[in-house]
Amino acid sequence: MANLFDLNHRVAVVTGGNGGIGLGIAEALATHGCAVSIWGRNAEKNAAAAAQLSKLGGKVQTLVCDVASRDETARATDATLKEFGRIDGCFANAGIGGGGRTAFADRTEDDWRRMFSINLDGVFHAFQPVVRHMIARAGQGDAFGRLVATSSMASLFGTARNEHYAGSKAAINSLIQALAVEHARYGVTANAILPGWIDTEMTEGLQANDKFMANAVPRIPMRRFGKPQDFAGIAVYLMSGASAYHTADTIVIDGGYSVF
Description:
By secondary structure, this protein is of the alpha/beta class. The chain has 9 helices and 7 strands; from the N terminus they run βαβαβαβααβαβαααβ.
């Protein structure tokens, strides 16, 4: 039991791991001994994240990768395997926000497609080559895998002027459940994390809006926005042996917002 959360000898991919929730996840995994490969589009942010994780003593790799591209995630998977020899977990965290400024009636086709290409297709592109590796490893007697996708509370509740964002995240929930059922035989679990209001670059504009904050924060029982570090515990748990029988779940991390 003392070693239940020991992630030494494990390797995890974190897409969008160079900032926000993704960086909080990567830091937590590294702290517990996990080697981490960060896939992100911004080379400078990747380098800064690598420097931060290196201070924790863990092995870290960063790769410039746009998850909207199947070719780029395939190359990133190969590069991660070349560096570490295995991939035990994939945290599909990369995504974009909807902004909430455009009415549904005025939504453009390009806007709609871009949202799904990153938030939904990006999960597919990240998971598929990793899952192939996990299945092959299970066939060699090493059955272990963790698939974790960052969804959103928007996947459960109405989000005016953000239907494309909500739709992309709701699809992730169903995808996760299907993956969990299909891949349990290989020792692979699949779960989604549903953040509430979190202090990241994606919410900077909202946090600068005094009217919004005056209405939103009192509805959060914790009376604050979440921090990337608030996802450390759930990340380590889902990556570890402690979650071996926990799969097909949509796990809400929102400070109680959804029930208040």
